[in-house]
Amino acid sequence: MSSSPCFTFRFFIPLFVVMLSCSNGSEVPKQNPVSTEPFVLVLGNIQDAGSPQAACSKECCRKLFETPDPSRKVVSLGLIDPASGARYLFEAGPDFKEQLQELNQQTGMPKSSPWPDGIFITHAHTGHYTGLLHLGKESMNAKNCEVYVLPRMQRFLEQNAPWSQLCTLGNIQLRPLKSDSSQQLSARLSVKALQVPHRDEFSETAGFLIQGPNKSLLFIPDIDKWEKWQTDIIELIKTVDYALLDGTFYSAAEIKNRTLSEIPHPLVTESLQLFQSLSRGDKQKVHFIHFNHTNPLLDSTSEEQTTLQKQGFQIAKYKQRFTL
Predict the structure, then answer these.
(1) 62-97 pLDDT, tens per residue?
(2) Residue 238 covered by a domain
């Protein structure tokens, strides 16, 4: 026999009351507190020319032309302080538009201007500064966006068009850096420029040491060879919490039509051997970055990535966070 409408209604009322009393009880579900600690966000891990690279017909690029990978962004970092909403870019390359959009979304609060509170540039190679054009009058028409640079990089931007127009129109405000000196961004954040040896046709090359309230991060996307630098990279790694280091080429087997002397970088195989003396904990600090489109480390299934991780090292991944 089916239930009468009156019986169904009488049954439903007590059940509703029980559910209501449970939802309004004294116990409130616990929520994870939102962290206010500053953090670095990886906005790109690819070498200057991108992946896929123009005119590349190799397997590494052919599939990407057919099916683009949105995570393949040219090297850049974001530095974000959730407590104040301040955000900074490290490098302004060809993927500036998307990386700025991601940076702004991370703050979670309205900003007085859409451009960053500051941009730090390592050197005058195309993957590191050409995105500054988006700050110009043809695009954002920014007002005095602060750009932090070493002296030769400052002169390069001031004396060469179209970059000089950004300066004269007040789209950017150049902030000179001194090697081995810290730039205080706030009570919780500072950045030290470290000059490193690289192909310095137009400017010197900087690495950056980012210091937060609790942890520090070393960022050196480009360097010729570790042994050319007067600073001992082994000892420097020991003093920081994270080290995002030049991993452009895994081995010389990637270089087919040029010699390594024309494009010197520490091969990842060389770095792995050099860093073997590090403790397991110090090895885990090292995250390689700035990968050429040919680098097998970009393939998560590659033997090279497995080997690297077995030895205790890591790769910097798109949208990876490092809490400071």
Answers:
(1) 888 888 888 899 999 999 999 888 999 999 999 999
(2) yes
